[in-house]
Amino acid sequence: MGDSPSRSFRDSSPDAGASPHQDQSAAGSLHRRAVLGSALALSACGPGAKSQTVPADLPPLKAVAPFRIGTCVQALHLDDPSFVALARRQVNQLTPEWQMKMEYIVQPDGTFRFDAPDRIAAFAQANGMGLLGHTLVWYAQAPDAFARLDERRVSFEQAYRNYILAVAGRYAGRVVGWDVVNEAVAEDGNGWRDSLWSQRLGAFEHIALAYRFAREADPHAPLLLNDYNLEYIPRKRATFLKLAERLLASGAPLTGLGAQTHVAADITPGKIAEMIRDLASLGLPIHLSELDVSITRSENRLLSREDLRNRQARVYGEAAEAMMALPERQRFALTLWGLRDQDSWLHQENASDSPAPFDEQGRPKAGAAALVRTFRA
Ligand code: XIL
Asked: Rounded to an integer, what distance in angstroms lies between the CA atom of residue 261 and that of residue 247?
């Protein structure tokens, strides 16, 4: 890469060109819920409890929630009329599920493509929905184009800055927020993750820099720190909070916290509420950013599928209640990681999982009813 092509991470030109990209990758090395205590959940619904009936005329989530309700979305969903109708009815915020990540944007030669994220952004705008940028820096995605950067020709930090300026700059003024750094805390909560970014720029420094550059790109966007397993692993939550405090103390423009909340239906009641209360202690707005409630990841073998379905609804209710308990200024949004079961990444992983609040036909399940009931209470 001799003369720098202007449409690459060497250059923050906002109109970078496109190149072909294969279909959605599984994004490889994600570790999720690897070390969960398999605590037997307290018996919130007894064995044999009947599934709750879902009222046919359930009002839309966005109409009853006192904060934004979102879903993740892929560009291909926008070609599915039933998805589009459901999303328009239920939500007022969209998070690109993977097409605003490096895995999509950064091409092997270091150029960028923005066709899919542009399409999602345009759809959000045309439908009066907020757009949540996800995500600028993620340990799990370190494209070769970065890894092979030759320090003699272009500094790694310059390329990192150019990438953030190109992406956050392109959508500046059009997002309701950015997940600036995703999953910065180590799996067990013991320190921060090791990644290409931490190796080249420093464990704390690469995180602080990302916030600085995101602010440079977009002077007003809320800038969030997003992570997962914060409800399951208190130590991870403590490290996450310490990181947030350290960022704030260093002057980094961190303005919100995201808890992904990928949970299983057998999660101990109260865990999500406890997490949200803890996270709220810093006074920042809280985004419940990727909520889904897996049936098949449940580890409590004593529970029948029906028990798990009932618990799933209760967990959706608890998540909504925890958000409702926050002071108004701290309720950023609640985002569902998949509206319908078949849209969920968990369904791709295990076809018998049914983690979403809406079924294949887009009909509300008990989870959607629990959300509505809680928002209205
Ligand atoms: C997942 C998407 O759902 C998949 O489609 C993609 O291939 C990989 O990433 N934490 C995150 C999300 O922050 O971006 C992940 O989404 C799920 C875990």
From this structure: 22
Which ranges constitute the DSSP H helices of the chain? 61-64, 81-90, 102-105, 115-126, 144-147, 156-170, 196-201, 205-217, 234-249, 271-280, 305-324, 345-349, 366-376
**Active-site residue, 183 included:** yes
In this structure, the number of other CB atoms found within 10 A of the CB of residue 309 comes to 22
Distance CA 356, CA 32 (A): 18
Which residue's CA is the closest to the ligand 1 atom numbered 3?
345
Nearest to 70 by CA among 182, 175, 185, 184: 175
pLDDT value at position 243? 98
Percent of the chain with pLDDT over 70: 85
What is the distance between the alpha carbons of residues 237 and 260, in angstroms, rounded to a whole number?
12
Per the structure block, which two tokens stand in for 212?
Answer: 């600085």
354: nearest Cα among 362, 176, 346, 123 = 346
Delineate the domains of the chain, giving CATH numbers in brackets. 59-376 (3.20.20.80)
Amino acid at 158: Q
CB distance 103 to 142 below 8 Å: no
Measured in angstroms, how far is the CA atom of residue 5 from the centroid of ligand 1?
30
- State the distance from the centre of ligand 1 to the C-alpha of 153, rounded, in angstroms: 33
For the question of residue 360 being annotated catalytic, the response is: no
pLDDT tens string 126-184 = 999 999 999 999 999 999 999 988 766 668 999 999 999 999 999 999 999 999 999 99
Q: Are strands 223-227 and 130-138 parallel, antiparallel or unpaired?
A: unpaired
Pocket of ligand 1 (CB under 6 A): 24, 26-27, 97-98, 182, 228, 260, 290, 345
Mean of the pLDDT values across residues 84-96?
A: 98
Q: For atom 16 of ligand 1, which residue has the closest CA? A: 97
* Count of positions (residues) in the chain: 377
Pairing outcome for strands 68-73 and 262-264: unpaired
Of 103, 231, 290, 318, which is the active-site residue?
Answer: 290
Place of tokens 């007003």: 220
Nearest residue CA, atom 15 of ligand 1? 97
**Rounded distance from Cα 186 to ligand 1 centre (Å):** 17
